[in-house]
Specification:
Mean pLDDT: 96
Bound molecules: alpha-D-galactopyranose
Low-confidence stretches: 1-21
Strand content: 25-35%
């Protein structure tokens, strides 16, 4: 029997569902409000009495349009803080007496630098909204684009010069996100450096501006373009994995970028994001336009766990090639840590044979196969097979690898050139430079100016040839340094700064064209590890190299930070030899289980493995294949953080809820204390599950089946002892 309370809940739920299904984007003409609904959040902005767009609400889903009121610009606070600064503009141009971060700043040909954008028109098509705005005087048109996805809203803008004179754009932001006005919010972001990427930082937001950015020409190891803001709950505590309001956003751009996280004197808390304004100057001739990157935002009122799961699902469904039904990532072997530059046909064949035996599905030859590439001093740019190492070209190796049942992938670094290379001797002008000035080398290499069309076409041509002539199904696309002396003399002084945008666009174009021409080709984005990970590159690559640091304990933290923004499917994680970074040696099982929480790769020197190592690896890879869909495409629950204690535990639950897998790691036992009880999540409390531990003796309760209620409420005691102990437990729905 359905009770009336249940009926009314059902009614409310259906009202929400039908509002979303029928009308994710609405214009309430009587109130001049735009309402954008995701599955769980509502975003509202409107036209105020000045005909300017003004933010109204972003947060948990509202279902009653009648509750919403029209927007009115905020009053002046004093002669020092006028309405332009106290009003939360939806896409403010820099003009009037505005002192907060603008979304757009321009200089017009006549020297005018004042920009005031007002509404012109809008169009709604299903889940997209396009709003046209224009300066009050000049024909400078800014079109705001919104796309509503189930859990995320995308915004970007297009700036179009419809005047008869050139315009210089000095700041072009994708947009600004506001959380409800207030104090005491907390900011989360991902900070790092080479070999120490995606470290989660959480700090209170104070009045002023905190800038998160890359000025490096690429996404950077230093900061990743993702943020989250959570609100203090009752009693002053912040959101955790399961509770609390979290607003989050990520930028889809692999060039220099910037987030300005601001708390204004009037308690507006806002994040403006887009192209980095540093050294920015983008001239637009009459008729030309500039499109900003996309800025994605979402909201969760179930803490950081749900926020990440929303982003993971979004990235898998709408960003990564292949969509939600993409086949799981193959287990790969990569030669880098085993051989470094010492690759040759016989040596690679030996490794391939051993890799195939343990269950590897893709064999990747890393650096060293081309030109005079015997170390990192020479060869970059000379993309022909080294005849000494591969006298008969790549075919014999590829055929051998294919014969072993694996596909073949290869390392490339298309954007780089060593001064000691035939390419540089022939085209020294192709390297990014300011004429007559020093050219700063890093890892003995310079950057090819990919903004140039000739360099772009040359690069596409050799990559296309390499992939067309060989059965190569995977490229590891590397980029091992950041910009220096970012000159583009051929563009002329007025246009040189366009390099910050055009370089990245051309890299995107090359990848996009390659993928169209070679639909089976898969690509990994690597930039000395995790230097180019963002939703822009993820639209065109299948996975990313998380970090050059493959030391398993460090990896727990690097991977944890990564998981806040990006899905496990895209996170390449290798098992490698020890001692590794920090001089640390962890057991092979520990290294395997850490790597199995992402897309598994093997990077060991298999020539040094013992029979025992091979046996363990074979078992682990077989286990991984049985759970990888759940890990890569399921829901992640971070149960114990490596930042908080001696235990790290993560659980993955398949989309259909039938399979779950727990990974638990003890870093270092102290005082003989047992590892804390692990309470599982994401299960059906009324269900019964089969429990299979890698090592059944590690399960204190010696269970073979358990109810969801027991697993979630009583929890599992996993007997982890000593240093670097680890366990994986499979939980499968039985009833
Ligand atoms: C970068 C990558 C490594 C490896 C080397 C090769 O450092 O991150 O994985 O490919 O380049 O030179």
């Amino acid at each position: 029997m359905i009770k009336s309370r249940q009926l009314s809940r059902l009614g409310a739920l259906l009202a929400c569902v039908s509002a979303f299904a029928a009308d994710p984007v609405r214009y309430l003409s009587d109130k001049k409000l735009f309402v954008l609904d995701t599955a769980n959040a509502t975003y509202v902005f409107g036209l105020n009495e000045r005909n300017q767009l003004q933010h109204a609400y972003w947060g948990k889903k509202l279902w009653r349009d009648a509750d919403l009121a029209s927007v009115h610009s905020a009053a002046e606070w004093a002669s020092f803080d006028g309405s332009a600064s106290t009003t939360p503009g939806e896409y403010p141009g820099w003009g009037s007496n505005m002192y907060t971060e603008p979304c757009l700043k321009v200089t017009l040909a006549d020297g005018n630098r004042d920009l005031v954008l007002t509404y012109v028109s809008h169009e709604i098509h299903g889940d997209t909204l396009v709003v046209v705005t224009k300066d009050i005087q000049y024909n400078l048109v800014v079109t705001l684009h919104y796309h509503v996805y189930p859990g995320v809203i995308e915004k970007h803008s297009v700036i179009e010069n419809k005047t008869t004179q050139p315009v210089t754009v000095e700041s072009a932001q994708a947009g600004v996100w506001y959380v409800p006005p207030g104090d005491g919010y907390r900011l989360s972001y991902l900070n790092g450096r080479w070999a120490g990427e995606t470290q989660l930082v959480q700090e209170e937001i104070h009045p002023g501006v905190k800038v998160l950015e890359s000025r490096r020409g690429t996404t950077s190891h230093q900061t990743n373009p993702w943020f989250a803001i959570d609100a203090p709950q009752g009693g002053g505590t912040y959101a955790d994995q399961e509770h609390g309001r979290v607003w989050f956003g990520a930028l889809g751009w692999s060039g220099s970028w910037k987030f300005s996280v601001e708390q204004t004197p009037h308690q507006q808390v806002r994040v403006t994001g887009g192209y980095n304004t540093f050294d920015f100057g983008y001239p637009l001739q009459p008729g030309e336009q500039l499109e900003t990157p996309a800025f994605y935002g979402g909201f969760s009122d179930h803490g950081f766990g749900e926020a990440s799961r929303m982003l993971h699902h979004f990235a898998r469904e709408f960003i990564l090639p292949g969509g939600v039904s993409a086949k799981p990532r193959p287990v790969l072997y990569n030669s880098w840590e085993a051989t470094e530059f010492k690759v040759d046909e016989p040596g690679q064949k030996v490794l391939a044979e051993k890799a195939a035996k343990i269950g590897v599905e893709r064999f990747v030859m890393d650096d060293g196969w081309f030109g005079a590439r015997n170390d990192d001093h020479a060869g970059l740019g000379d993309w022909y097979v080294n005849p000494r190492k591969f006298p008969n070209g790549l075919q014999p190796l590829i055929q051998y690898v294919n014969g072993l049942g694996m596909d073949f992938g290869i390392w490339v670094e298309p954007e780089m050139v060593n001064p000691n290379s035939d390419l540089y001797r022939k085209h020294p002008d192709w390297a990014m430079n300011f004429p007559g000035r020093p050219r700063t080398e890093a890892r003995h290499q310079l950057i090819l100016n990919m903004a140039r069309d000739d360099v772009k076409e040359y690069t596409f041509a050799w990559l296309d040839k390499l992939v067309s002539e060989n059965n190569i199904t995977f490229l590891k696309w590397d980029m091992n340094r950041n910009f220096s002396e970012p000159g583009w003399p051929e563009a002329g002084p007025a246009n040189e700064k366009k390099i910050w945008v055009q370089y990245t666009r051309n890299v995107y174009e090359i990848i996009d064209r390659l993928r169209v021409k070679h639909p089976k080709l898969e690509i990994e984005s690597c930039s000395g590890g995790g230097g180019r990970i963002d939703l822009g590159i993820l639209k065109r690559v299948d996975e990313v190299w998380t970090s050059d640091n493959t030391e398993a304990l460090d990896r727990l933290r690097i991977q944890e930070g990564f998981s806040y923004a990006y899905p496990a499917q895209a996170m390449m994680a290798w098992v490698t030899d020890v001692p590794n970074f920090n001089g640390r040696s962890t057991p092979l099982q520990f290294r395997f289980l850490v790597a199995m929480m992402g897309s598994l790769g093997i990077g060991n020197n298999l020539n040094k493995w013992t029979g025992e190592d091979f046996a363990l690896a074979t078992r682990m890879i077989a286990h991984y294949k049985s759970i990888r869909r759940t890990v890569q495409q399921g829901k992640l629950y971070r149960l114990f953080s490596p930042h908080e204690g001696e235990l790290t535990a993560n659980q993955y639950v398949s989309e259909d809820g039938k399979q779950s897998v727990l990974f638990a790691f003890l870093h270092s036992q102290q005082y003989g204390r047992p590892a804390p009880t692990i309470h599982l999540r994401g299960l059906d409390e009324n269900g019964v599950y089969r429990i299979t531990a890698l090592d059944p003796n590690k399960l204190a309760e010696k269970l073979t089946t358990a109810s969801g209620a027991f697993l979630q409420n009583h929890g599992l005691d996993v007997l982890l002892v000593g240093d670097y102990d680890s366990e994986s437990i499979l939980i499968e729905r039985a009833e």
